[in-house]
Design a protein that fits this description.
This protein is an alpha+beta fold. The chain contains 17 helices and 25 strands.
Amino acid sequence: MCAVVGVHGTPDAAIWVRRALSALQHRGQESAGIAVADGSDIRVFKQVGLVSQALPESEILKLNGSIAIGHVRYSTAGKNRIEEAQPLLTECYHGMIAVVHNGNLIDQRGLKREVLMMNGTFQTTSDTEIALQMYAQTNKKTLDERLKRIGERMKAAFAMLFLTENQLAILQDPYGFRPLMIGQIGSATVIASESCAFTQLEQMSGQEADCIRDVLPGEIITVGQDGIKATSWMDIPRQRQRCIFEHVYFSRPDSITFGHRVQKVRRKLGQLLADVSKINADIVVPIPNSGIHAGIGYAEASGIPIEWALVRNQYIGRTFIDPLQSHRDNGVVEKLLPIVHLIEDKRVVLVDDSIVRGTTTRKIVRMVREVGKAREVHVAISCPLTISSCFYGIDTPRREELIASRMNVEEIRAQIGADSLTYNTLENLFAAVSPFAQEYCTSCYTNAHPLLDKFNLHTDNGYPERRHDGIQPHPTQG
């Protein structure tokens, strides 16, 4: 999923970006980086690790400039090494250009072959570098025209920020998969993946943040000395495909994402889940942190008392976005511990946001039953069964990794060791994001991928591939 931040119009732009990235740390734990422009040059500082480790303020203070972009990485494409960390920077005929990217290019293999056929070279395995190579290959005269050209070729799914020596630019895919907001804080223009970054900067600067609007699908926005300029690179508007998993899991509960308060959506999902579940139990126990607000809603609707009976070690990161399965497994053991006297001999309903691979839930159920000494352990999940891969920015490209793609509900219940297992319905998920339900991508719950069909892609090897081998390179003039 990653997070991107851009700031224009404050002399300490790098520090602003660092603070914003710290608020967005939940979107990526592998690396962090900042690029700063001062009107004649672009400097990049990036390292592997969390923001607090990778971006020490003593180093960021050395990055002078009034325009900056930043990134925290959760890898869905490419290897996990410092070379893959963003921002990526290159110098070409058009000058210096840096980029940060949230999303996943659905045709990255075909696009990379196109670039190579035009004598491009790659220094990383990241799909983000495709955008830089395309930018360097086009002969369009203006920044807007170059971004329009590469947007047309990349198709989806991307929310990108570009930095030149004197401009900040935004490129959003035509379906709006990934969230991106634009705001104003004093004289500074700020772009961020989530509104919680604006709140962080508001507190730091002492100036009120104005969340102007979401960046629209297919939009190009440039921010420079002449102000903000917005254009669309699409001739015909497309059907929006906002990622529903942002509300279920990824976004911070204090954010406004796609026009909805995330906390309210999750609470509503919990309330609707209680109507589906109807379990006789003594206590509701939310699984922190992503199950907290669904658990509150479940307790409200069911009338079952809520107990905060699982203690989370806040020094352990989000296990779902850890790139290694072994780390995810060990992280669950280290991250949560039960408060035994609250659970012992109780009928417990564990409320969580999702079951993806099943390993995390199985360990939690076993811990509550064996360590917490619960009499019964029931599991209630606030979203529907995750049955299909995501190719738009969530790291689940291989369907066989998803437990619900190969087991039914009863088989999953037996696998995780619960006394009962209840999933929410797709209708309830739509109800929670009403009235914009038809603007969301729910491919992970339906296994319907209209974009792959539209662009003639197949998924035999995990990531999408073009169905035909004959590739005609795009002319640099086109």
